[in-house]
Prior knowledge:
about 35% strand; 2 helices; globular
Amino acid sequence: MYRILWAWTIALVLLAFPSRNALADYSANHTSTVKWVKIYNTDVIYFQLNIQPTTACAQPYFMLSTTLTSEQRNRYYAMLLAANATGDVVRVGYGTEPGDCHNDRAIVYALQAE
């Protein structure tokens, strides 16, 4: 009986205090050419667009989500490098709320070559 009561208490507490990531939402798209691409700590990828949109995050550039698989991250990285080298336009899908920031950088939810 106490285990069931304890489980319900934990469930209610978790529902009452959602994580920041639970508040994140892909809510905007922006197209531009890529200004620069940077890898940090071997698997975190940052990039900035030549016409960077205003986001809720403190840093004026994007970050690929750390939840991407290695295969997804490699595809996005290749796309960003190719767009940077050729001057081609990319479409970036991102969120506009503070929950869409990770370490003050806007998280990318989608990336498309135009």
